[in-house]
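Q&A log
Question type: sequence-to-structure
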Amino acid sequence: MAKQTKNYVNNGKLLEEMIIYKEKAKLAKENDEPKPQVSNYVGECILLIANRLSLKPNFVNYSYREEMICDGIENCLMYLDNFNPEKSSNPFAYFTQIIYFAFIRRIQKEKKQQYIKHKTLENSLIFNTLTDNHDYDDPDSFVSAIDLDNDTRNLFVKNFETNLVKKRKQAKKGLEKFVEDEDENSTDH
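Response status: OK
Response body:
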């Protein structure tokens, strides 16, 4: 016997609920009424998708996993009205994609905050070393205080800064390519 996988979200039922919600939302808009509340089933499905996605290996070990789940649910509710049953019959994939990118944004925010904390600590250590030295005329003491880079700067800070430089270079190359393409197109006409 082949093992059957049990779907934790019934995509067909979720689609039916989304169609009903979209109809209610359309009527409410036509009658200048507030948007209707989503059904409990849709809310439960969004929660299940967020919880299950957070258990994937690329998300499970973050200490702020609960914040990731909350961000995912919030984004699903924000973009609920953008789901179009006429274009897609897969609300499960729609919500999964929204939650996935919400998780990625939360991870980026948290890494940036971690970077700021590390840099603040590093700058604080350098500043304290400089002010504790009191020998501002000795250039060697100043250089040794600034050369704390090898001792205090950790791998996280280096990686973050390296990735930031790479992103800036890629964006610059993309902009240069865009400008070149525009120049070529303008000379053709």
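Response note: Helices lie at 11-30, 40-54, 65-78, 91-133, 139-146, 149-152, 155-188.
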